[in-house]
Every structure is written in C-alpha cells, then in structure tokens.
Amino acid sequence: MTLVHPHRWVDQQADFDAVIDELLTQQRYAIDTEFHRERTYYPTLALVQLGWGDGELVLVDPLAVDITVLRRLFDSDVEAVFHAAQQDLDVLTHAVGAVPRAFFDTQIAGGFVGYGTPSLVSLLSAEVGVSPPKGDRLTDWLRRPLTEAQRDYAAADVAYLIEVQDRLLARLEALGRVQWVSDACEELRAKPTSGLNPEQAWTRLKDVRGLRPRPRAVAQAIAAWRERTAMERNIPVRQVLPDLAILGISQRQPSNEKELSQARGVDERFSRGKVAAQILAAVAEGKQAEPPTVGASNDDLERDLRPAIALISAWVSQVAKSEKIDTSILATRADLVALLSADPAARLARGWRSELLGEGINHLLSGTAALTFERGSGLRLVELPNA
Predict the structure, then answer these.
(1) 198-288: which CATH number, 3.40.50.150, 1.10.150.80, 3.40.50.2000, 3.40.50.620?
(2) What burial class does residue 371 get, using C-beta atoms within 10 Å of its C-beta: 0-12 exposed, 13-18 middle, 19+ buried?
(3) What is the pLDDT of residues 352-381, one digit of tens each?
C-alpha cells in the first residue's frame, strides 16, 4: 500500500512559530531533513519535515523562515523520532545550533530487534505495510517551488515514524532492551559533528597509518590548515587540497616552492603564491610539533593478543545472530581492539555491551572457555574442565 497523509507547506514565520508552539504540547514528534553538501563544507539545510499527533504533517522551508526557532523545541523534553539520525544531527547542529535533547532513532532500534541496518523503506514495509512514494535521490531540494511529487516523497519520511516507533518499542520492551536503545541513541547524540576539530582532520586521511611519526605530524598540520580553510570559505576540503597532495607533501616535507612543486599530488595551483606560503608554513609547524598518536589497531596490541581478535570477532558475530542485534551496533573490530588495548574509552568495558559480552570475552582471554561448532546452532562458548 502506498499512502501519504495530507501535509502543509510552511514558509511564513508566524505559521512556523505556531507549529513550534503546538509541538511543545506534544510528547513526541517525527522529524527528518533534506540537505545538500556537495559544493559546501557545511551541509546546507533545504527542508525540514515534522509529523505529530493524529496525522499532522508539515514541510518547513528553511530558506524562508528562521529555522533556529527549532531550538525552543530541541531544548524541551519532547522526544524527537528520527530514522538514521546521524546526518540529520550534523545538519541541525550547523543550521539550528542545537540537536534534540531527547530522541529515538528507528534505525538503531531496528538493529536491536533483528534487522541489520534497516532502511526506512524496509521498516515501513515490514512494520506498517506501507511502500513510500518513489523519489529521485538526486532531487535538488533547494529549488523552489518543489513539485507535488517531491513534497509527497519528503512527507512520507515522517508520516509513519511514530507508528513504527510504537511497534519497535513493544518488541524492545518484551526483550528488555529499551534502555539499550536509549544508550545507543545517546552515544550518537554525543558524537562530534563535522568541522569542530581541525586538529583531528588528519585521522580521516587514507593510508595515514603508514606514515612515520615526523611525516604524520606534518600531515596533521597540513590537514588542520586545509580544514580551517575549508570552514572559512565553506567549500569541500578536496577543493582546498587533495588528500594525495597532503600525503605527498608530508613525505617530502618541502621548505620552498620548488620542493613543494615536486611533491606528489601538488599541481600548479598549490605550488606558488599565497596558498604555497600557507602550505609551507603548515609544513614548518608540523616539523616542530609532537607527532600525534594513531588510534588503536592490531599493530598496537601485544603480539600474543592479536590472534584473539579473530577468535572474539567470530563469537561476537554469533552472539549478534543469536540475540538478533546488528553486529555493527554490538561491537566493531575497533571496539575489540580498544578493549584489548585497555583503552579507558572502550565501549565494551561498560554498559549493556559489557553485560552481554564482557564475561565471555574474559573467559576466552583467560583460557577458561573455548568455542565449539555445532551444525545448525553455530558457535558455542563452552567452559573448559579444570581450567
């Protein structure tokens, strides 16, 4: 069944203020955004969809109203219901200056009741038997006016979210996992958004782990300069300087324009003038800086612990399957490395993940348990006699 509730287009400030006033009387509301970031550093908010109550739906035009009024709603205890909230939170951070204090993510919740990383289409189909209208994923959401088909497509993103939440909550309550979802949503809310720490920009460079300490320090300085420049000009970082050029410059560590022009990935645009001077200044800064440490990896583990990663990963996958939890939510490889490296921030060292996995991991590491395979049942953790 394909169905979209009637919806209103809001492009007058008084109407938008009235919507916020109405939402502040509710217990929860559904929210989604449409945005673009292909030509800018910060995402450009193009549309906000809101749904609440008995089928109330509005499409808010952020190009016509002061969208920061949403902060009144976000600072309240009214719960926001998203699907796949991560990018929406990033967009809203920059457009509104805040994100909802309390929110529920149906994609995260789906991962705790047997879905993998469910799309909205799959959840709507499975939970409420609805097929949303098809839309063009390359839609220009900044164009005005939007077509009726575009508006229907956008409205469908929030039209059934609260109903989906109700169905997921019923299953989560039966499983005793409501708090787990709440904790996972809070983890997502606390994640840093784009553009907040240029000093960490180097960690997103491909192959940066292969650099020696001094070139790594230079890469950090150049990547930080690139990030700040992109933020100031609001353009994608790749338009400031390509990744390949950062790695090439870091390896060569040039001290003048001629040496800079010989670094891999550096073309004429970057090898002379003001830009070249700024890059060379960043190189000089990096040469004097303390090399940053890379995050935990297999190479950081004690050699005799490295085989444990594969063993524990296999068991975690089995637990995820048995418990019907998305493996990426339960524990990633990075989570396992962080735990075995005694990282104090390791997610597996606390909370529901520790309750579910901690004892088993400790038994495997101490040699008091082993994994066996049973056809039809998969891997089983068994205690060893006399261990």
Answers:
(1) 1.10.150.80
(2) middle
(3) 999 999 999 999 988 898 899 888 888 999
